[in-house]
Amino acid sequence: MTDSTQLDLSYGVIPLQKKDGEWHVFLIQMLAGYWSFPKGHPDKGETDIQAAKRELFEETGLSISQILFPQPLEEHYEFQRSGWRIRKSVYYFVAEVTGQVALQPTEIQNGKWVLLSEAIQHVTFPEGKALCRQIIQLLSQR
């Protein structure tokens, strides 16, 4: 690792609801235009699950009713920002959620519930598409 590399850690939730016997996932569209899952950086002193719950609520107005798998799913990728190479790690808790959607307008431009089986077509980045496949597989084994 060189001096121009920064590590970036975030926590999030992949919000699910079962409707008419089928799993739906809530996706958010960031102001930058891409579709993904709610996530963000932990505040000082927060645990991983506290940060994930807070970010979910701040960005969507939704709350966790049940975490479906004890271990979070991991997403890792790299990108460039302001001359720095950023190594990003995101840990997502897969959870059933409840509440009324209330999007955070300073970060989120849109949000929508989609069938989990169709989410791959809506998520922008390959890492998110891989998470969708992983969740479908995990849920089929329950």
Describe the structure.
The protein is globular. The chain has a single domain, classed as Alpha-Beta Complex (Nucleoside Triphosphate Pyrophosphohydrolase), CATH 3.90.79. Strands 1, 2, 3, 4, 5, 6, 7 and 8 form an eight-stranded mixed sheet that branches. The longest helix is centred in the last third of the chain and has 15 residues. The mean pLDDT is 95. It is built from two helices and eight strands.
Q: Shape, please? A: globular
- The end-to-end span amounts to 40 Å
Q: What's the number of domains? A: 1
Query: Could you give a short account of the major beta sheet?
Result: 8 strands, mixed
**CATH fold naming:** Nucleoside Triphosphate Pyrophosphohydrolase
SSE run? EEEEHEEEEH
Tell me the β content.
over 45%
Which regions have little confidence, pLDDT < 50, spanning 5+ residues?
none
* Rg measurement, Å: 15 Å
Give the name of the CATH superfamily: Nucleoside Triphosphate Pyrophosphohydrolase
Number of continuous helical runs: 2
CATH class: Alpha Beta
Mean pLDDT: 95
Structural class category: alpha+beta
From the 3D coordinates, which CATH architecture would you assign? Alpha-Beta Complex
Number of distinct beta strands: 8
Question: What fraction, in percent, of the residue positions are helical?
Answer: 10-25%
